[in-house]
Write a structure and sequence with these properties.
Length: 458
Amino acid sequence: MDVLVCQALIDIVGAENFTQKLIDLVSYSYDASGYQHRPDCAVWATSTEQVSKILTLANSKGIPVTVRGAGTGLGGLAVPAKGGIVLDLTRMNRILEISVPDRLAVVQPGVVYADFQAALAPLGFFFPPDPASGSVCTLGGNVGTNAGGLRAVKYGTTRDYVLSLKAVLANGEVMHVGARTMKTSSGYDLCRLLVGSEGTLAVITEITLKICPKPSYTATALATFHRLEDAGEAVTLVMHSDVTPSVMELLDGAAIELLRKHARIELPEVEALLLVETDGLTEDYVRFELERVAQLFHKCNAIEVRVAKDQQDAEHLWEARKAIGGMMGTVHLDCVPEDIAVPMSRIAEFLRRSQDLSRQYNLFLFNFGHAGDGNLHTNIFYDSNDPDQTARLEQLLYDLHKLACDLGGTLSGEHGIGMTKAAYMPLEHDRVALKVMRTLKRALDPNNILNPGKMGLE
Ligand SMILES: Cc1cc2nc3c(=O)[nH]c(=O)nc-3n(C[C@H](O)[C@H](O)[C@H](O)COP(=O)(O)OP(=O)(O)OC[C@H]3O[C@@H](n4cnc5c(N)ncnc54)[C@H](O)[C@@H]3O)c2cc1C
């Protein structure tokens, strides 16, 4: 990169917030996906004004800028695909305001999800999207990807909590979008446009989030089913009922088998397991709701429904679900973690047909995920050193995403598109919708400097 540009960046952020060290450039070349590309430099911005100056400079020179939080994205989202500048916002990590009367908080994008949660807890409040990476990922990254988690079935995803944003456009102009109110019908909803835009439309430097009173009680149950279709039917029945569980997680037979073998967890040989949680203000009510769910599970031929007697028992029931992440590390193969979502009524069909694809391409896969909102994590094992397996994997991934879209689903329930799913965008979005996305991108970023090479926008 031109030394004059480097000097200009140092003048903006200070020498201590600029790096071209090889070790830093290598660290910034990847996220939690397998994709890698090295940037030319990285800067840590500490204010909106600095971000504005950096983007003005980059835009005038046509230099790519990839904004980055903790880099835990699973789709090559924060990978600087075209080099240029990595704009790290983790030093903008202050919680600026928590207003319980207004039920909102104002934060900088680099605040870590878990730190925000910890600040809300003493006030009896919480921020519901619950990504499993919460101990490290940032709120800026959560907004950039529209992150979700276990509790999306009841509480929705990040998008449902973003009230307003301060954002810097590619040309350095700063805009405020949204409102500090619980609702607004004023003009185009630019807030929702920016949520999930993966750093391709603007850099977000301040976020106003809705916060919620934390429910005092939870109740947990685990049910097993001989047939996948019965578990699918159970999910559909629960979602048709007047109870909305706070968690409804599913593990398919292949996931259960793996846990038995690799995590040594005692589980029955069944085709499906459902873990369900209800939450609320009184113990009686959450138990009443859980009973209703248990009745529906029995109606769908559940072999057994175990209701946790207390917190310790509940943690025991959570053991299998929580062990999945660690278990994957013990299988000495590469693993592709997918996150398609399908309408709830099509879950069983998706699971069956994904196993058909597994057999067709002779690659092992298992499914677990958020059955209550149709978001399934299909994990495929393969050996990246074997070209034949890699070729089969590519075909399988294409067919899997096509299957999800054919069933009325979406390519990504929570991780985003980034680089890994860019080629599949036409499977879900029609020609006109893609044209509108590209038109929006060109209007806001005519020189294509913001996170270029992502989301199939080029
Ligand atoms: C073990 C593990 C578990 C995970 N579990 C979940 C889960 O349960 N649910 C879930 O949704 N995801 C999950 N993820 C994926 C990931 O953690 C989330 O996508 C998270 O929101 C990314 O946050 P980050 O700070 O790491 O963002 P990064 O990876 O740094 O960035 C993600 C995207 O957001 C953009 N971005 C970051 N900051 C800004 C900003 N200020 N302005 C504009 N754009 C910005 C980036 O350019 C990039 O495109 C998991 C990942 C791992 C590794």
